[in-house]
Task: structure prediction
Amino acid sequence: MSKALVAYFSASGVTRKVAQTLAESVGADLFEIEPEVLYTRADLDWRDQNSRSSLEMKDKSSRPAIKGSCDVSAYDTVFIGFPIWWYIAPTIVNTFLESVDLKGKKVVPFATSGSSGMGETNVYLAPSCPGANLVEGKLLNHMSADEIKRWAMNV
Result:
């Protein structure tokens, strides 16, 4: 496999575990996308239409600020992980994608979800990574480390 990075956003820790497994299984570097203002339990209450996550997801142009930066210039492949929110990636993922130069790189989304699939994830991620080869993503939270490795080696 070419030089790879696993960048991920994890609100509750589930995606973090999958990202760590993926990075270990393919020998990739790991980068956590951290919000400048951490999400509280109330912020993540999808049943509350006025919660932070609900408001961000209603406004597809929302770009929550992130801590730090990541130099992706050394990588050929960037795996991008996140929990599925409202059938797509949280808008903080777009913040990250728009903060780095992904031209000519393969971008591979992966997600965790309690019940929904990838939905229209790529439709909303594509404008945030112009010039990249954005491939179809996959839910990984119900896969073994061996299954994750096989998938990653074949994307």
In short: The CA atoms of residues 108 and 135 lie 6 Å apart. The first helix runs from residue 14 to 26. The beta strands are 4-8, 29-32, 77-83, 106-112, 133-134, 138-139.
